[in-house]
Amino acid sequence: MVVACPQTVSSLFAAEGFETINIEIADPVAIYKRLRQGGTIYTLEDLLKYFEQDDHLIQEIQPRAIVSEFRFTLLQLAKKYDIPAVGMTEATCHPHFVPDIDIPEGLINQLSLPYQEASATYGVEVLPTFFHYASQGDLCLLCDHPALIPIEPLRPGDLYTGVLLWNRPEPLPSELSQLDPSSKTVYISLGTQESLRTDFLETYVKKLLEQDLQVIVSLGRRSVEISLQHQHLFVVDFVNDSKLMDLVDLMVYPGGAMSTYQALYYGVPLIVLPAHANQLFYAQAVVRNNLGYLFQSSELQIDKLLSNTIALLEDTKIQASTAKFQQQITSFEQQNVILNRIKSLIG
Q: What CATH architecture is 2-162+332-346?
């Protein structure tokens, strides 16, 4: 096994005993800025660099099989060189995904154009839409639960993974030992990719504290300053969600897939403040399944957000729905099926 990843995370894989090789990725800050402005994930220049880098890796490593998470260029090159490939993506990026809102065809065409231009330039197959690029592979693993993001029909190579959790070993910050288990706790996660605006944060936190709530804010290693100080306010640079969720009553966050499932796996209701389309799709799924509330971050009203936060902490119907959904997703087991499919693919 060789794990190709950015140097910033290679130590995580090396610690588990994997051989690693460094690759470059496009700047996440630039990606989310484009997405907020209705642009594409990658530019043509990004994709051509990816093609060159991935082609070099394939020639150097000569792999028997490739597993790729959202690296479209690598999956296309696997097809070109007839290498068995497993793609990993979110179900919201599947060609048969039907969102709660109509996506204009012109927007889909605009979104797809850089991938099609890069494919034509590099001499590999040009695919119909962005969604076909995002869900490639002889086996396409949909990193979702079918109850939250349903796909109909599935293709022969599609397989749901169910919930993927990042169970990290790091302990919680020592200051969180001061949490009062008899008080309600609101966890605000800003996310690590700078998609969520932060101008609302300090006013919102202040109003939560005035309601005698405990508040945990994870900055996601973002350069955000909070001048407030309070015995019931805990501001951390980064926190291990897999050890935190049992201690919180509600999470407020941008709507990323992994954060969504991390909370739901532990039965935590959600308030979602999506900044771009994919986060909006998860937010709509949360509302559709009665697991929490949705607020468009671009039209955020602090008083309404506060009143809904307080209401959600006491909403027994949503709490019951969340508990039922928790049971549904924790009992979904696909690991052996996935491993057997990969083994049969490699031969």
A: 3-Layer(aba) Sandwich (3.40)
